Amino acid sequence: MPSPNGYSINSAPLDESEDSEPLIENDAVHPQCCSARLNLAVLMFLGFSVVYGLRVNLSVAMVAMVNTTETEPAQNTSVISACPMPAGSENTSDFFPQPAGIPQYPWDSETQGWLQGAFFFGYLCTQIPAGYLSGHYGGSVFMGLGVLGTAALTVLTPLAASMGAYWLFALRALEGFGEGVTFPAMMSLWARWAPPLERSRLMTLSGSGASFGAFVALPLSGYICQTLGWPAVFYLCGGTGCLWSVFWFAFASDDPRTNRRISKEEQDYIINAIGSQGTGHGWSVPVLPMLLSVPLWSIIITQMCSNWSYYTMLTSLPTYMNDIMHFDIKSNGFLSAVPYLGALFFSTLSGVAADSLIERKVFSITVVRKLFTLIGLLSGAAFLVAVSYAGCSHILTVTFLTLSATIGGMTAAGVYMNQIDIAPRYAGLLLGITNTFGTIPGVVAPIATGYFTEDRTMAGWRKVFWVAAGINVVGAIIFTIFSSGTIQPWAVVKDDVAEAEKDRSHSNST
Predict the structure, then answer these.
(1) Is residue 295 within 8 Å of 484, Cβ to Cβ?
(2) What count of Cα atoms within 13 Å lies in the side-chain half-sphere of residue 185?
(3) In Å, what is the CA distance from 361 to each residue of 30, 34, 141, 239, 364?
(4) CB under 8 Å to 272, separation ≥6 — which residues?
(5) What is the mean pLDDT of residues 369-392?
(6) How far is CA 298 from CA 150, 305, 480, in A?
(7) What is the pLDDT of residues 396-411, one digit of tens each?
(8) How far apart are CA 184 and CA 51, in angstroms?
(9) In the Cβ-directed half-sphere of 418, how many Cα atoms lie within 13 Å?
(10) Which residues of 385-406 are buried (b: 16+ CB within 10 A; e: fewer)?
(11) Plot region of 102 (φ>0 → left; ψ -120 to 50 → alpha; else → beta)
């Protein structure tokens, strides 16, 4: 559908140059305040907050679930502290007492590792199918059912744990299976809901709920474990997810055309701004052109590189704070969460800044995506290296880790936005593909960290930070060279070309 002022940004470009980008007209922009699309972004923000609370709660609760007095320590080993122990802490125990009647289990470190990684086995399975199906049917049902199913399973965690480690492993894998549909569903929804000039701010706002969820869940889970017992963590997190799903099914819709609360003015603005790309892709997809697409592979590789440092911090930062810096458990939970608060604000602000640069035509979409990715990855890498040389300084360590995660949040307006630029119609499927590859570091990075830090020395952790920084730099280089912000030829169908020609003829005649 043509824009009332000329071309839709998603119209197929008619000249042959790959670097050319559609013209952007923004004379009739509908206000975002109190709009249906902003309400959708807020709902998604809360949804991803819940999702990440459901994801990280086990890593905190595990400390309370395991009876460390019954696990057998390694024989003939001695641990030399990399940093001096705080005064008065030499005789403290890692044992985390629970209220009377709360069970604890004698799981060794290997069993705990398998239980922590079980989530990702299921998470890897549903990314691509969810992206494909949500792109065809719409994403609201998949988003709602994904969170609801994961939340309901989370409530069963204490029961599964009481039945044995194998049952808990299966339950966590099923939780990952359910949660794997959420991000592809989000991308499919924004492909139909987000006007091109507002994509960055709407998508970074909704996606930043993940950082907020991690920031809240890490310290709050520790507090709940200590006061109410570890089962309460899963009951409260699961109950919150079920409550959120009620509001989601009541207010969310696949498309502005089917939303009952949207104004006619906003509906027309969104439909005209997105154009024909804001529709489902049907059952057939251009699989071979996708596999041969250099811009798509640049997104895949860069997301894998960026996620390596992200998952390293998500899974190993509490261990570093405990083994090297010797923070007590309350301080550990809070300080491990601080970097995510910085990432929350910076990713949201970067989305607003990116949209502003594109709207004012300061830079093209391609340049904006490359610029934000380059700054985010290189700055994050620099501060990770700085952490490795901060020594035993608590202040410098926390500062550098926070800055690394905070400035690294700029990639939210860069590489993580790029799949909807190159193929809006297939954005959900592309996110399923890129997120599947991007989850691999979540499995590999903790294993590598364990290998480097086997002796719990500062030198071992220095390798962890250097490797993460180096991988960040590789991703920044690849994305800068090979990425693109234009709609790819394989994402354009004949109807798009005909519409673009009609739009241009109409514009020339007026």
Answers:
(1) yes
(2) 25
(3) 19, 26, 36, 46, 7
(4) 1, 2, 3, 4, 8, 28
(5) 92
(6) 31, 11, 9
(7) 888 898 899 889 888 9
(8) 14
(9) 33
(10) bbbbebeeebeebbbbbbbbbb
(11) beta
Q: What is the DSSP string of 230-243?
A: HHHHHHHHHHHHHH
Name the packing angle between helices 294-323 and 458-482 (round to 10°).
Answer: 160
Dist CA 297 CA 497 (whole Å): 25
Distance in Å from the first CA to the final CA of the chain: 17
Here the tokens at position 86 are 């705080």
Contact criterion met (CB below 8 Å) for 483 and 365: no
pLDDT category, 14, cuts 50, 70, 90? Answer: very low
pLDDT tens string 56-89: 788 778 877 877 555 444 444 444 567 776 655 5
Tokens of 445: 């990075």
Locate 6 and state its tokens.
């000329």
Contact 21, 184 (CB under 8 A): no
Cβ neighbourhood burial of 361 (10 Å; 0-12, 13-18, 19+): exposed
Q: What DSSP line would sit under 338-373, residue for residue?
A: HHHHHHHHHHHHHHHHHHHHHHTTSS-HHHHHHHHH
Q: Tell me which H or E stretch contains 284.
A: none
CA–CA separation, 378 vs 330, rounded Å?
Answer: 32
Helix 427-452 to helix 182-193 angle (10° resolution) is: 140
Q: Tell me the residue type at 109.
A: S
- What does the pLDDT look like over 421-462, one tens digit per residue? 888 888 778 888 888 898 888 778 877 887 887 777 888 888
Pure H helices in 29-107? 36-65
Predicted TM-score of the model (pTM): 0.75
